[in-house]
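ingest -> fold -> write
write: protein_1
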Amino acid sequence: MAADLPMNQLSFISNIPDAAQSAQLGIARGIRGLNQDAQVVAQSVSGLGGDVTGALVDSLQKKLSVEASAKVLTVSGQMVGTLLDIMA
């Protein structure tokens, strides 16, 4: 069945794993950033200094980034399922 698909559709299908990998990388980076921001906040509470406001703003940005990456991962999984249904 894949042999019947036009070339542009085949290249689209081959990009799905890239989207999932990018999403997983985005989630990992976001979580790593959240952990760093949490350390800054914890250190400032214990009197070691640090830009709490910057860390809190950054943590909100990281949260949104993780949510967006999770959505990309969900949609890429749905696309794989749809493509499998179509090809079956």
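write: protein_2
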Amino acid sequence: MQRSRVKTALHFAQQPEAWVKKHFSKPFYQIWQELHGAYIFELVTGEHATYHTIQKVKTFTPPSSSRVVLPINPPAVTHKVATTQPGKVHNSI
């Protein structure tokens, strides 16, 4: 948006539709439509029955809430991960 010199949502909303379509991708055009009052995105206010994520998180050491353990372990883990060769798993953390 900065390349197009658009600095605020108001400035973006004031641009002609043809200009927005020419200079921006579909998600930006949909936002422009929303700014003009069109109903594009469904608003879900209730709880979800299931949650999906593309993120998978694993811990390297047993979980801890100790303030003594947490600041000490990350540098060791970072060093071990940084020195592991690509494609190899380092299990001795």
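write: annotation protein_2
The two ends are 44 Å apart (CA to CA).
DSSP finds four helices and no strands in the chain.
pipeline exit 0
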